[in-house]
C-alpha cells in the first residue's frame, strides 16, 4: 500500500495517493512519510504540514518521524516560508540526534534560506562536519533566489576548491542566480564551462535557465536565436521562459511565437494563455485579449487562482483574491482602501494595466486592491507586532502593482516585508526592494 502511495506520488496523482493512504488500516512511519513527501513534492506544502501534525498526534513515540520525514517537512516549511514551524522542526531534529544526517542538514539550509534567513542558513552550513554537493547546492540556490548572484558564484568557486565536483543541479542553481541578478556575461561563461570544464551535458533545464537569463535582460533576439541553435528539442520549459520574458518586456512578437509552440506542446496549461493575454492587455490589444480568453474558455481551462500564505503565531493562513470566508475580510479590505488612499497622496499610483478586463479605472483599482498578497499583507499588519517582519509566499509571479504597493507600505508602515513569489525573493525595507525592480 505504501509503495502504491509512492507510485502515485511520483506521477503527481495526489488524489489517488491520498485515497490509498486513507484506506490503510495500519500506518507506519514509512507510509506517513510517503504521503507527507507526496504533498511536499507536488506543490501541496500546506497539506504536508497538516498531515505531519496529524502524524505527531497519532503515532507512538517509538515510531515517530525519521530523517526522511524531516526532509519532506522542511521542504514544506521552505515552500510556505513558515519560519516558526521550521524552527520547531529544527529543535526536534537536534533533540532526536538527526543533525548528523546530511540530507536533513541540507534541507535545513534550504529552509532557512527560503524563509529569508540567509545568515542562519550560512551558520547551519558552516557548522556541518561534512558537506556533499547537495549541501553546497542548497547554499548556492538560497543566495541565488535572493538575487545575490555574485555571492552564489563565489560559493560555487569555494565548492570547487574544496574538491567537490558540481552536479547538473549546481548549474541550474547558478544560472538561476545569474538570471535574478542580471549577470548575463557570467551566465554565458558558466553555461560554456559546464561541458568544456566539467563534462556536464546541458539538459532542458539548463537551456531554459539560459533563455530566462537572456530574456529577463531584454535580450529577446539572442534568446530566440539561442533556442534555434539548441542541440536538443526545446520543450515547454524553454518556450515558457521565452513567453515569461516576453510578458515582462511586453514584446508581442516573441510572446506570440512562444505561445504558438506552447499551445501545441501543452494545450491544457492555462498559464500560457494568461501570459499571452497579459502581454496583449499591456499592449492595449483588447480584441486579441478577448480572442485568447475565448480560446481558454472553449478548451474548458481555468486560470490558476492567485494564492498567498502568511505565517502568524506559528499558524499558516491562506488567502485568495475572492476570499470571503476569512473572519477579518471586511477589516482587511477597509485597511487596504485606507492605506491606498493615504499612499496616493505620497506618490503611489495603482498599476491597473495588470487587469485583463477592459473596465473603468476605478473598477480596475478595486480588482488589484483585492489581490491575495495584499490581503495577506493587511492580515500581517493587523496581527503582527511592529518589530516583527512580515513573510508572505505567493504561488504566482508578483504583479507590478503589488510590488509597488508593498514598497510603499514598507516605508509608510516602517515594516520589513519579505515576499517570495514563484521566481525569487523580494525583501522590502524603507520603500526599496532587494530585487532592484528586476524580476
From TrEMBL:
A Gene Ontology annotation in the biological process aspect, one of them, is:
mRNA metabolic process
DYW domain: residues covered: 347-439
> GO molecular function, one example?
zinc ion binding
Question: What InterPro entries has UniProt attached to this entry?
Answer: DYW_dom (IPR032867), E_motif (IPR046848), PPR_At4g14850-like_plant (IPR046960), PPR_rpt (IPR002885), TPR-like_helical_dom_sf (IPR011990)
Q: Which PROSITE patterns match?
A: PPR (PS51375)
Classification via Pfam families: DYW_deaminase (PF14432), E_motif (PF20431), PPR (PF01535), PPR_2 (PF13041)
Q: State the source organism's domain of life.
A: Eukaryota
Q: Where are the PPR repeats?
A: 28-58, 132-166, 167-202
Q: Which PANTHER family match?
A: PENTATRICOPEPTIDE REPEAT-CONTAINING PROTEIN (PTHR47926), PENTATRICOPEPTIDE REPEAT-CONTAINING PROTEIN CHLOROPLASTIC (PTHR47926:SF482)
Protein's UniProt name: DYW domain-containing protein
Species per Swiss-Prot/TrEMBL record = Linum tenue
